[in-house]
Amino acid sequence: MSEIAHALIVTGYILSVVLTLAALLTWMERKQSALMQDRIGANRASILGFRAIGLFHIIADSLKMFLKEDFVPARGVRLFHTLAPFISAFCALAIFACIPFGPSLPLGDTTVNLWIFDSDISLLYVLALGSLGIYGIFFAGWSSHNKFAYLGAMRGAAQMLSYEIALGISLIGLIMVYGSLSLNDIVHYQGRQLFGFLPAWGVFLQPLACLIFLTAGIAESKRNPFDMPEGESEIIGYFTEYSSMKFGLFFLADFIEVVVVAALVTVLFFGGWQVPYLQADGFQLPGGTHWELAPLAVGLIQVGAFCAKLFFFCWLQLTIRWTLPRFRYDQLMRLGWQFLLPLSIANILVTGIILVCR
Amino acid sequence: MAKPKLNLLERLYLPEILRGLLITTRHHFANLTVHILHRVGLAKGKRGAVTFQYPEDPRPVARRLRARHRLMKRPDGSTRCVACMMCETICPAHCIYIVADEHPDPRIEKRPKSFDIDLGICVMCGYCVEACPEDAIRMDTYITETSSFTREGMLLTLDDLMNHHNEDNFPKHTSS
Ligand code: SF4
Ligand code: SF4
Questions:
Q1: Which of A88, A194, B65, B97 has the smallest number of CB atoms closer than 10 Å to its CB?
Q2: Chain B residue numbers touching A210 (CB-CB < 8 A)
Q3: What is the pLDDT of residues A309-324, one digit of tens each?
């Protein structure tokens, strides 16, 4: 199989997983919130009388988005107004390029690597693209020529900048432990065991960093406890002047970011595609029991494990989004600068001391 | 208002956040289980949601509910209304329009030639019912779904008032 065909197939696989999950999340968000609040949720869209527990709402929503008028404010800047949703969606999607969705699968006499590229700077690439996402928001707010959109964009930029710092610094402790910036190496490292029984997952090595990363990650994805840039209940946010599929793209980018955060938490802190005690040749339980498995079966279990973890963290984020009330803006800033930032720096110090004394 | 004092654990947020997450998650999975059981025909007595699936599963309405009007009939099928204009006069919304006509029966003075109620203006106050000396107008059809694409469509005529309500409607959806 040629390089290009291989890359295309893997890209197709990853995009289909991510986009399906993102589309599914729009449905899950409505259904899950309904269940949590003792409601029923969207279930009216039907095809030939079939309602499929509301799944057709995804189709109905996207059809509606496509058919609506594409509106650009008269005094807005058309170029940036059009560009903004693309930047948002691009930055969110491009992050998946270096996330390993599974191990190298042996298929016949070739191996399929379930990541698009792997390099020594993957983690920096992820952080860089994550920060570039600000441009989408800022262009949207600025080019709309609308005070509310502008307010939302300002808030978004301030919030993302503040939390980016805590996010980045919380990862430094992790990098010190793993000794690599390559996401693949990080996942491989997490296949080891601590004290002979505990999987060496990031969450056990760096529990504080995991907490900070999850918090800052949710803040980065601009969803409910931190939904200042959007502020449905007050300013509507940076996409006030967006309609049709341009809004749809922002909406989708939002959910893709949920998947991004879920994927990053999985890869960095919860072992990526590693399954506890599953080695390359089968299960090896701490008691010494050994259960032989074919390499392909092992690979498929690990791919499944990654998808399950991804799904779990998406679910967790939705649960958090529908449980916690939103912060006030000053509380948000205080949490970011006076709480998460010092904590993450302290985390680096403690990690460093432990690594030196070990 | 005095702010309640939070103790250290509460100020740390995390335990409280976890507690909240547990509550919502419990609701989530309890309701999910009930819904799944409903799919396979079990746990019929339990409700997984407080939602009423409205058009299919109408809410029970109160007996005293004031809904669309109807005009009562005499045993011979003619209208009981004597076009006394009491209802038209009392109507605070001025939405009843009656044109009187001479009644063929000499013992009854008048009858309505036309009797229109504009539901688009009516405020459902029920004064017309109270005012009627003949108990000719009532608001007990329990028809609450009145909508139309035009303003004219909201006008009830004598014919609508006398004949176009489903008698089955009356007791069924009511709870006393
Ligand atoms: S219910 Fe009130 S507003 Fe409506 S027709 Fe009767 S008197 Fe008029
Ligand atoms: S008050 Fe009664 S009798 Fe008089 S016009 Fe109205 S409906 Fe007819």
A1: A194
A2: none
A3: 999 999 999 999 999 8
